[in-house]
Write a structure and sequence with these properties.
Elements (H helix, E strand, L loop, with lengths): L4 H17 L3 H8 L7 H6 L7 H12 L3 H12 L2 E3 L5 E3 L5 H45 L3 H5 L14 H6 L2 H6 L2 H7 L7 H17 L19 H5 L4 H16 L3 H10 L8 H6 L5 H19 L6 H9 L4 H24 L7 H8 L5 H19 L19
Antiparallel strand pairs: 1-2
Length: 407
């Protein structure tokens, strides 16, 4: 039978070893003794049993030239019950002594038990990962978001701790898109909301908008139930109560108010240019207090416009600071409009200080200067009464009543 190139190399190396080292017959016999060798590394380990240093050095030098192909040769030979002897021949594997066999058997049993334990541990870990995935899927499916979890199903087959599943889920692009406002909250120094809290807020926002009859496009849902219009509310930490306040302010105090209010609002505040008062009022970037201030000023200005009087943003905001409301503004400007023109005419006729809207407002709305304004009005009345004996003019009109505001 022809021998392989690898076998020839082993034989040649060991022959040279025997020649160069002048190995004794006993040493040669020991080296030629067939010993069970199941791998290249085991074959090498037997060389350490050679006591003579010079012989062992030469043997190690010879084996150093054996490549991995020879290692495979040794391993394959062992599979069919053969071994490579130190002289390079193939021989049947001799039976080990009983004690050595018992030790080998004991080692095999220990290895087997270790393998079984490892297998059971691996199966338990796999089951834990499956359970973690199933629980996460069940929780998200309640909100109709099961598809988000399906994207991390591959983690079940990976060596990933079940405690990391939720973390990995929140790192996916789909999750980040669905709960986009959380990133904005964190950037703004707020805590991220749980999925349940986030969706509960969306539901409350939607219910409010439906109840107040807002257009459906304000709460329309997109992919995975995402309501993009709500993200600015969640990011801005807008509570349902604040949102309702904003809706009422926009809808009842502007949209459903007399048109003069809208006219004044746009006239006073040109930044409201898109005509969508509702969108402006709902924008969380606009502070609610500032919005209410502007709306109140617009209500006051609208009341003045409705009475065909002048209106400026500065005067409207000043009246608002003194506590004038939409209701009191309508009553006050209605009274002022009934007597202002005649009072102005009489002041001119009798060469008195002009009787202006500002003077009338001071008396009507109880502003600083109220007493002086009342005195001026009564002086005009007195002059007319002296000349016409109280028969005509403002004595019988609105300006002639005791107080300009209730003329």
């Amino acid at each position: 039978m022809a021998i392989s190139k690898e076998e020839k190399a082993v034989r040649a190396a060991l022959a040279q070893l025997e020649k160069d080292a002048a190995v004794s017959d006993a040493a040669v016999a020991r080296m030629n003794q067939a010993t069970p060798v199941s791998s290249y590394e085991q074959a090498r380990s037997q060389l350490s049993e050679i006591k003579d240093p010079k012989t062992r050095a030469i043997a190690e030098k010879a084996f150093a030239g054996v490549d991995r192909q020879t290692e495979r040769l040794i391993t394959e030979a062992a599979k069919v019950g053969l071994q490579v002897t130190p002289t390079g021949t193939l021989a049947p594997i001799q039976q080990q002594p009983q004690q050595q066999q018992q030790q080998q058997q004991q080692l095999t049993n220990e290895q087997y038990l270790a393998q079984q334990e490892a297998r059971l541990a691996a199966e338990a870990a796999l089951q834990n990962r499956k359970s973690a995935y199933d629980l996460l899927l069940e929780q998200f499916s309640i909100y109709g978001l099961g598809s988000l979890v399906e994207g991390i199903k591959g983690l079940v087959q990976e060596n990933v701790s079940p405690s990391e599943f939720a973390i990995r889920l929140r790192q996916t692009d789909a999750y980040k898109k669905r709960f986009a406002a959380n990133a904005q909250r964190i950037a703004g120094g707020l805590r991220a909301l749980s999925e349940g809290e986030y969706i509960a807020l969306e539901d409350q926002y939607q219910e409010l908008m439906r109840n107040y009859g807002l257009p459906a496009n304000y709460y329309a849902k997109g992919d995975l139930g995402r309501q993009e219009g709500f993200e600015k509310f969640i990011a801005g930490d807008v509570s349902p109560a604040e949102l309702e306040d904003r809706i009422v302010t926009a809808q009842q105090r502007v949209i459903n108010a007399p048109p003069e209010v809208t006219t004044a609002l746009k006239q006073f505040y040109p930044d409201i240019t898109n005509g969508d008062i509702l969108a402006y009022t709902l924008d969380p970037s606009k502070g609610l207090a500032d919005i209410k201030r502007k709306v109140t000023a617009a209500e006051i200005g609208g009341a003045a416009i409705g009475a065909q009087l002048g209106a400026t943003v500065g005067r409207a905001e000043e009246l608002a600071r003194y506590g004038v409301t939409a209701e009191s503004a309508r009553a006050g400007f209605g009274a002022i409009g009934g007597g202002l023109e005649r009072g102005s005419q009489l002041a001119s006729i009798y060469q008195q200080q002009p009787y202006t809207q500002t003077i009338a407002e001071e008396e009507v709305f109880n502003l600083p200067g109220q007493t002086d304004a009342q005195r001026k009005r009564k002086k005009i009345i007195g002059l007319e009464q002296a000349e016409f004996a109280g028969q005509t003019g403002i004595t019988s009109g609105a300006l002639g009543r005791e107080r300009a505001g209730s003329f």
